[in-house]
Amino acid sequence: MDSKTTEGQSTRVDEDAINAAKAHVTPKEKIILTGDRPTGRLHLGHYVGSLRERVQMQNSGDYDRVFVMIADAQALTDNAHNPEKVRQNVLEVTLDYLSVGIDPEKTCIFIQSQIPELFELTSYYMDLVTVARVQRNPTVKNEIRQKNFNADVPLGFFCYPVSQAADITAFKATTVPVGEDQLPMLEQAREIVHSFNTTYAPVLIDPVAVVPTDAAAKRLPGIDGKAKMSKSLGNCIFLSDDAETVSKKIKMMYTDPDHLRVSDPGKVEGNTVFSYLEAFATDEDFEEFWPEYQNLQELEDHYKRGGLGDMPCKRFLDKVLQKNLDPIRNRRKELEQDIPAIYDMLQAGSRKAEAVAAQTLSEVKDAMRINYFNDSELVSDQSKRYQK
């Protein structure tokens, strides 16, 4: 009994090892893929959560290629009856990208819907995934609940994990910057990669997620203190907001509701002003705008023991944010003077992206043996068989 069990286990381990080796493809380049749905202008939550890091990664010299996708097709999965919203915001998102420092000379910015190869790849990958597996995806379940779809889930939205796998693998991305809430999507993409490579041939690259390590960057709260900054909740500070609008929003920020008098001890946990200061304020900012304190820790200590009001903290935050946003707004104003050039750039980026995706699709179809018109050996063998 023991001998048979050991033998069976050994066989299973050997098979697993073979499949794992077959599923693995060593990447030749380090490639980033990331992007956003164009459902509105980008805000400070996007900036600290992803945009700031994208610019750093783009300029680091550590990556061979960087792709940034404007995911309009994905945005349409729950905006199918309002396509103009998506259409208009493609430009808004692009302007935000360029104004924060994403450089089209270093990064290929493209529009998802203009790359037909992505949708063909999606259809092939669907055959490797069960409905039950998609239903178990925590990100899908959470977003269905948040959008109150209930049983009326658009099929395109439901299949987003498969579509995302197509986006990632089409460009052979080795690195995918995501928030923690998107990790289940990356895990499912990896499953699809392994399934394809073991079923057909080792073609697809296994992507690795990069998650923000800075706690302040993981999720910036809305100005109302809600856990998430969201366009639909109206609690955002947009990158394109003018200085006056930013100041008004900062004055409205949620703080400690029990900090009624200046003398009262205050809480910094859950206090939106201090969450934003943690994400943006530097020691240099204190030296420039509030030299009474050397750093954020000293400010927090004073607030917690009492004797410091909310308005001085908000005025300091206002100066810090305006300092960060001024160059972004100024760059955006320059870009807005030549909108045709923006579309020319997007078209050039989409053409470049399509060429890369087309090469991957060709390799996928070769592996699947559905390259009928390019397989002269198939035609020759079948001709011989029927001539006998």
Task: Write structural notes for this entry.
It is built from 18 helices and 5 strands. It folds into 2 domains: 2-218 and 339-379, 3-Layer(aba) Sandwich (Rossmann fold), CATH 3.40.50; 243-335, Tyrosyl-Transfer RNA Synthetase, CATH 1.10.240. Residues 1-13 have low confidence and may be disordered. The longest helix has 30 residues, at 339-368. It has 388 residues and is mainly alpha-helical.
Number of domains: 2
Q: Rough shape?
A: elongated
Cα distance spanning the termini: 53 Å
* Helix-strand pattern: HEHEHHEHHHHHEHEHHHHHHHH
Strand content: 5-15%
Helix content: 55-70%
The helix tally amounts to 18
Rounded to an integer in angstroms, the radius of gyration calculated over CA atoms is 25 Å
CATH H-level homologous superfamily name of the largest domain:
HUPs
Q: Tell how many strands the DSSP assignment holds.
A: 5
The computed structural class is: mainly alpha
What value does the average pLDDT take? Answer: 91
State the CATH topology of the largest domain: Rossmann fold
- Spatial strand sequence of the major β-sheet: 1-2-3
Low-confidence stretches: 1-13
Query: Major β-sheet, in short?
Result: 3 strands, parallel
CATH class descriptor of the largest domain: Alpha Beta
CATH architecture descriptor name of the largest domain? 3-Layer(aba) Sandwich
